[in-house]
Amino acid sequence: MGIRGKDLFDVDDLEAGDVKEIFERAQFFKRHGLQKWTSLKGKSICTLFFESSTRTRISFELAAKRLGADIINFTASTSSLNKGESFKDTVKTLDAMGIDLYVIRHSEPGSPVMMKKYTNSPVINAGDGVHAHPTQALLDAYTIWEKFGNFNIKIVIIGDVLHSRVARSDAKLLKMLGADVTLAGPESFVPSYFENYGVRISHNIEKSISESDIVMGLRVQLERQSGGFFPTLDEYNEFYGINSKRMKMAKNPIFMHPGPMNRGVEVMEEVSDSDSSAVEEQVTNGVFVRMALLDLILGGVTN
Amino acid sequence: MIFESTKIFDGERFYSGKISFEKTFIQKEDECVDLGDVWILPGLVDTHAHFRDPGQTKREDLFSGAMAAFHGGITTAFAMPNTTPAIDSEAMVIYLKERAKKTNLDLKIVGSITKNRDGKELSEMLKMARAGVVGFSDDGNFLEDSGLARHAMEYAHELGLPVISHCQDKYLGKGHMREGWFSALYGISGIPDVAESIAVAREIELSYLTKAHIHIAHVSTARSINLIRQAKKDGINVTCDVCIHHLVFKDEDLRDYDTLKKINPPFPTAHDQRALYEGIEDDTIDAIITDHAPYLNEEKEVEFQSAPFGIIGFETLLNEIIMVSKNGLKIEKLLKKVSSDPARIYGLEAGRIREGLPANFVIFDPEGEWHVSKDTLMSRSSNTPFLGKKLKGKVISTFVEGKQVFKDAEKISEWILHFA
Question: What is the mean pLDDT of chain A?
């Protein structure tokens, strides 16, 4: 059992026991604060970012460095992809140089799965299109576990669910761990078939917030306006935005957000910068959860 | 030459007997080769294929396409007009017909409705009809302009030829698989089912207005089937076909993001696939087609949403029909949909074994097997989800006008003596 040598395409590659092991290892690292380790000394980790990202890439980079691994960053803008090299050739070229583990972010769903045709090294999905973002789901779940000690909680995820890999992976993982999950927002963003995740669908966000322990916001991108998903950002904010008036409808709810936040659109500062906000903890925990993952997959010996 | 078999399919049903032919026509008996219970089928009729000739011949050309067709037991095939340039003029039709003569394939040409298939001006339909096209289609492009579509149908009606329509609303049709639970789960952008049925409804209404024969290509949803079933009851001159791959694969099968399974219209939901089976059962669906669409490996081996739509289909048609027959549809029904039924709706002298007809037929061993690989495929392309798989059923030999145009190297050796 365990996840040593395995890929992480999405959270359903994990069993509940694996998640527990990851959480315990993350907690162990967190207790030691900023201590540096040597468990992955000599291992080469490559982050392949075909889509721009700040926090996820830096989080993985810090995690790898704290474990003593060598880390190489590949970003599409500085790469030969600009010269017309295909995804296939890029991966084959890197693989020929000898990489122990890949972290991939790509705008295309399924690209981590496709990548496995060209490498035998483990692949961690750091976000593929709107499909999945398993490490974000793990750090979200870890943050909840740390705060509540269990998953006997109600969470509502509000916003552009249709275009959110975080909502998909969170819904799967939190359901697997036993949480009560609601996906909420306008019908254009929350189609009825998302019910198949075993979650509740709601278009009445005030009612959903009032019944929740945790309120998670999702980024609403301006570009969706031209697709007709919503008429204006201002209207969206007024009818679906998370503000303190709405947060007061619940009993001491926690606010979470995978970032980057659009302040004044899906959430007001009075919520995102308040004491109930767990946004910074999510970011902090992200490094420890990713350390745990890398350590467990590459078989480091930290204890 | 005579062949004897306990399983001769005449285009409608199996019978036990002999067929014989001298030179090009099927005749009464002579010296006899006993095939036992290996099947004799009429040369199959595939009314929707892309030969990529001219202009895209790295993928396929008339010669490789014809060989692939023969390997699949197909002797009559429709060439759709999405070539480069498009088949939108009399000269193009004549050129292709001349070129096809060298292939032995009974190639039928579909001309475009609009010049360059761009939906702006009508092609010279009367001239193309004079050169012998069997119908008109803008192929992958649904003609958005309903006024232009109306006039095209008026000309088609006057000519007694069908308009073949790829029904898909352009604005709803932006996506890479069928929208629903599995598109949500896989994170692939979805095309809702109504993107098709909205367009089907428009075509049915225009056929009502113009009396033209409208043929709906590769129907893939329950709602489209319902509209067509009702239109047929109402006496509208509408026919339709389904792509064989849509009877084998479902949306769910895209879990591996295999671009070799990417096709437009996308694979149906389980619910829609059941409706397709029912549509065949009650003859709402008139024909089964391959939508043979060759693409290079270089084009297909990219990220899912960047890959082109299309799967080759000639060479696995009978294998897939065997698979579908295991899901409850009668084999005779399925064979009829790739022989006498498509011939009937397009008024072709093909797809039957009958005295006096051209000796186009196929010897097919339903118990045989073949391994699908770049080496065994006759097509220039290998974009099929069956690549690397072993399939049940094997075409042993194909005849066009009495001439053996395909023979399976191993199997035929038992009988080859008779041909010399």
Answer: 94
